[in-house]
Design a protein that fits this description.
Layout lengths: L4 E6 L10 H12 L5 E6 L3 H7 L4 E6 L2 H18 L2 E6 L9 H9 L10 H13 L7
Parallel strand pairs: 1-2, 3-4
Helix pairs in contact: 2-3
Keywords: ATP-binding, Coenzyme A biosynthesis, Cytoplasm, Magnesium, Nucleotide-binding, Nucleotidyltransferase, Transferase
Enzyme class: transferase
Organism: Dactylosporangium sucinum
Length: 139
């Protein structure tokens, strides 16, 4: 659909993530490395400003359930009004509709098998992170 895809990571200073922005960018870059038309970048501020600065013509958002769509539709309408950037919605494969980052982290924290739901690199990094924090492991 697109000549280039940009995976944009928001730097949200009011949130303390499990991984730093640099770690997230590193993992994403490794996961998308087989796709030469995909690049990874980070930004602060408004997504529409990032889009304009990087000549991104459309935002693609994945939606799992109706509540995702309700929230993302508001964002899409704001982005269109602020900067004229269109948003395309892609429904998830039903077998992944229940997956969220917080659920994946919770299962990983307690040693559950997350390998069917995330790339091997991410599963390994999550196991390592929780092991170094002294979390229990079932492995």
């Amino acid at each position: 659909m697109f000549d280039e895809v940009v995976v944009a990571v928001l730097i949200n200073q009011s949130k303390a993530g499990l991984f730093t922005v640099e770690e997230r960018l590193e993992m994403l870059a490794e996961v998308v490395a087989p796709y030469p038309n995909v690049r990874v970048d980070a930004f602060q501020g408004l997504l529409v400003d990032f889009c304009h600065a990087n000549e991104v013509g459309a935002i693609v958002k994945g939606v799992r359930v109706a509540s995702d769509f309700d929230y993302e539709l508001q964002m899409a309408q704001m982005n269109l009004g602020l900067g004229g950037i269109e948003t395309l919605f892609m429904p998830t494969n039903p077998k992944f509709s229940f997956v969220s980052s917080s659920l994946i982290k919770e299962v990983a924290k307690w040693g559950g098998d997350i390998s069917p739901h995330v790339p091997d690199l991410v599963a390994n990094r999550l196991r390592e992170r929780f092991a170094s924090a002294g979390q229990p492991s079932r492995n």
